[in-house]
Amino acid sequence: MDTIISRTPMGRIGTVNECGRLAVFLACEDSDFIFGQSIFNDGGRGFQAFPTPGYKTITEDEYKEFLTMKGGDD
Question: What residues contact residue 60 under an 8 Å CB cut-off, 6+ apart?
């Protein structure tokens, strides 16, 4: 779980209320004009620019450098 959290830009798992609010929004009239969209309620984890070792073009060394810059120690 710590690995998942460390690789999520928000730095935490979403709450039941955060997930529920999206469901309520999609069920109400305010979302009537939304059609055929994928909405990711994942704290930014699906955002591909967030460096993850072995993912896309980032190397292990680049990821370690990123962690040093942000103050992490994965």
Answer: 53, 54
Neighbours of 19 (CB within 10 A): 13
The vertex-42 CA angle with 38 and 46, nearest 5°, equals 70
What are the backbone angles phi and psi of residue 5, rounded to the nearest 5°? -65, -40
Kindly give the confidence (pLDDT) of every residue in the chain, 74 residues in length, as a single tens digit, with 9 standing for 90 and above.
887 777 777 888 889 999 999 999 999 999 999 988 888 888 887 775 555 555 455 667 877 888 888 665 54
Query: Quick count: other Cβ atoms within 10 Å of Cβ 53?
Result: 15
CA dihedral 9, 39, 29, 23 (to 10 degrees): -70
Please tell me the distance from the alpha carbon of residue 54 to that of residue 29, in angstroms, as a whole number: 42
